[in-house]
What we know:
Number of strands: 0
Radius of gyration: 21 Å
Number of domains: 3
Oligomer: single chain
Amino acid sequence: xxxxxxxxxxxxxxxxxxxxxxxxxxxxxxxxxxxxxxxxxxxxxxxxxxxxxxxxxxxxxxxxxxxxxxxxxxxxxxxxxxxxxxxxxxxxxxxxxxxxxxxxxxxxxxxxxxxxxxxxxxxxxxxxxxxxxxxxxxxxxxxxxxxx
Length: 148
């Protein structure tokens, strides 16, 4: 039991619940996905896991550590001030992740056929939303700095 906790990080009940949730999610995916697309869904899922865990997570972990170190070097910065960059960056990245095919115009033919519109405004809108998020965060940071 101690070896399991030291290598896995949690107890056997947690591992059992995790495996059960994976089995349930896999069964649901098999029911939803049509037969010809199952292999494609699996490839996308595995690719997304590999891309996130081996590329993106280390990248944004390094960026977060760098931002924290930069803030700690400045003595005038408040201890939680890095969050005023973290939150808009996270929300902007999440929006890009969700709308990446539209922002990068990778699904133009299908989108045009379905809606009769182009994907031109998506990049500008994502940039504007990101700018508003960072601007709002900067205003909140300035208000917080004034109060302190």
